[in-house]
Amino acid sequence: MQAYFEDLAEILDGLLQPEEVFTCHFQGEDSQFVRLNRNRVRQALSVQQRELAIDLVQGQRHATGSLHLGGRLEEDRQRLRELVETLRAQRTCLENDPYLYYATEPQSSLEEHDHTLPDAAEAVDATRDAAGDMDLVGIWSSGPLYAGFANSLGQCNWFRTASFALDWSCHHEGDKAVKSTYAGVHWEPGELRQRMARTREQLGVMARPPKTIEPGHYRVYLAPSALQELLGMVAWGGFGVKSHRTAQTPLIRMVREGRRLHPAVSLQENQAAGLAPSFTAKGFLKPQRIRLIEGGEYRDCLVSPRSSKEYGLPVNAEGETPQSLEMAAGDIPRSEILERLGEGLYINHLWYSNFSDRNNCRITAMTRFACLWVQNGEIIAPVNVMRLDESIYNMLGHRLTGLTRERELIADTRTYQRRSTASMRLPGALVEDFTFTI
Length: 438
Known about the structure:
Layout: H1 2-14, E1 21-37, E2 40-58, E3 61-69, H2 73-91, E4 109-112, H3 120-131, E5 136-151, E6 156-173, E7 176-184, H4 189-206, E8 216-222, H5 224-234, H6 241-245, H7 252-256, E9 267-270, E10 289-294, E11 297-298, H8 305-311, E12 324-327, H9 337-341, E13 344-357, E14 362-375, E15 378-382, E16 387-391, H10 392-398, E17 400-403, E18 408-411, E19 423-426, E20 429-436
Parallel strand pairs: 4-6, 8-13, 12-19
Antiparallel strand pairs: 1-2, 1-5, 2-3, 5-6, 6-7, 8-20, 9-10, 9-12, 10-11, 13-14, 14-15, 14-16, 17-20, 18-19
Helix pairs in contact: 1-2, 3-4
């Protein structure tokens, strides 16, 4: 695949006219998907796709376009020629772009991760065996992912990785179900069995009469998947330099007023441990780590190429939303969570989240999939749906009582256009006086 991409770049180089520069960004996948329903295979398919995005530049004017490739070089050569001619014609109608910025000092790189993944049939068989008689619905996705960058200035970057994700839920009845995921780059059947056993245990709780609690303040445990939903909202403008400079970040009080989170809270964009390419679509190499929040204090911003041009800062990210977000672990063993929680809510998942007060980073969301009532350190009953309304400054600030020692890799399982390479690695969180409104 790398040689094929380099051949494409060589073809593009031969199509240039004097004073033209091209940059191109390649994305590809060889993926396997299996859909399950009632713990039976309902659909199995494979997807092979290769897409090339081209930016044809002359001075400060440029035109961009993309095409899907068939993998046959001679056929693709003609399609590249047609796209370049189209971009050249479009460029004559465009004004100068004051924020055009791409790598002009060649920094080539090669990064390939030879992760050993199971065959899809093997993984699905293991899933069905572990699920047994549970009413499981889910999707398996796996396989290698590719990315490349090249330009006419002599730079060439190549990235290959491989990952898997199993996203499933098991239904009891009505609106009662338990959801879980297992994702990573190293397949461990024992880990799958443990997660499936937790699903079975919680599904048994869902058969008990549900408990309705009154609005108010409760002690809660936010599982990593619940914390992921909340941090996903914070990441919506929270860490980008443009949102900071235009005062649109939901963390504006950290920036303008010096507001802090709990000293145990540290967040970083950990490129080295994620699934995303180590370079941007404009050819800039990403640093391995970017400190976003450290010891509860805001540190650095994500800077995209266009923001770099606008604000005179070095590029450190593709866009200004984290792609490999990581939170530092705490010191609470996962096995002690119920005991430490004592009495309160064990929240596995949240959804329908939005800002209720963006300037104060206050978020509202609904509980979903096995929100459980805990009493005397034991799970007692499922809890009927509740709506929370709470600020990050509270839940990860003075009301945070601890984070788990174990963290979970939560891969983005979306497959719009292609498999996502975004991920988060998060602990669980114990929080006091968490606010529920209805």
